[in-house]
Amino acid sequence: MDNQGRTQRLQSNLERLYGALSPIEAVSSESSYNCQAVAQNLPLSHATSYRNMVAICESGSLKSMQKLIDQGILTHRMCAETELGTANGVFFYAGAFSYPATNFGFLFKANIEEAHPVDGGATPFDSGGLVKHFDWGTKTTELPIEFFSRHELPIPDYRRYLHRSFEVLYNRDPWRYLDPEDVTLANDPVKLANGDVRRRRTHEVRIPDSVLLRSAHLVAVFAPKNRIAALPEVRALFTWCRQNKVERRSFDSPGGDDFSGLRSASLDYLREKISLY
Amino acid sequence: MQEPPLDVSSLEIVGYSDVLSSGALPSIVPPIFRRKGAVDSVLVAPYSFNGRYLCDATEISVEELESLEHRREVTMLPAPIDARKGYELWVNPQGLPQYQTRSEARHQLDLIASQELKKASTAFADSQLDEAERHSSVALLADEHNLEAMAIKIAIATVSNDSTSAEILRELVAQNSLNAISARITELCNQYYKARPVAVTSGCHSIMRDVAMIRPRP
Fold first, then answer.
1. What is the pLDDT of residues B80-101, one digit of tens each?
2. Do B164 and A243 touch (CB under 8 A)?
3. Cys-Cys with A211: which of A62, A76, A113, B76 at CB 3.0–4.6 Å?
4. Nearest-by-Cβ selection for A50 from B20, B64, B67
């Protein structure tokens, strides 16, 4: 499909999904968050393992799987990204770190999306979960890539849908999106079931090819305390962050479970920030 | 989907979440569990333990696990290990996974931290800062709350005139602990300058003033 056809499909998906939420009246909420501002400004998160963190620090960029394959760093193989045609994307979540089994994380400003209205994309779920993780009503007759195609949204316009989701699905409380409970959402037009609720509810954003790490878009870096102290690559990045006024968050990792600390630290950060929007 | 509690004795460990090079060892690692006899899915962190039960684990498919391995996010064990209640999986400095009771694992890690700390102290006293840095790193990886190893690291950054690094290290230490090790950092700095005399305007009395007071060697 050419760029124009893809752009039309994504726009059409956005109008359909947005329209499915629009007629529904949200009940009153005690939430004091400015939903529109939160939706527009929610940072993009990317979490990774120690080994990839070192590679990112050394190369100075987050690279797509396709780029890593092209550079001979990874070998080509079938996986969710190749099945869905997303191997050229660098993956982010709009919100907290939600991918299990990760140890380090980066948050980027929302406006990093603005340079990619044509070649970027978003989905109101973790797209990789469509392959052997989530269920949906038409799964027996609809391939993951078909479901993906029906729900792929343009960036940054998907944030309109995210805003409407806060209003309608989450009772005007973005926190219910950021730290979701595993309950059925009334009026959810996506209707995914099973799988990890964090990945089922998060909006995923894909930016093509690579993303520069040390840039004005980077807003915060997260790492376990003892690894900042012990690993020169990580400490060098924290040094750069300090010199460039990028926020640094560290956390303990009792029992080696870095992910719990990573996620908690990102939720703490977001709790502080979204109340200011 | 978060799984209902599972008896640990019904599980085996097939890998762990992380890929570690020698510079990041030793490390306690979160195991990747699999139901014995199951081939389709595995259970990954975050999770918790309640007695002999694994609770709130996240289930992912074997295809996703393979994808994670391909993307260098997880490490697979050469052969599964039977999971056991109260055991800890950790990777030793040689890169070999160890599966021991929590107290045995803690004892081994404390032993490594103690040995590496001794080497770091000796290296620092001999003004071998790279060696001291390396050994104190291993000590901290073995024991994340090892304040003496952190004191050596801050002292290394201070005597190297790397004030940003010293500040970043200080930020990692709780204020009450930092107060507790300030004198030790000062002592280490003075020990270093005594061994390698440099122009010092008025000694090394306060950790917050170290950098300002010590003139770099020409």
1. 999 999 999 999 999 999 999 9
2. yes
3. A62
4. B20
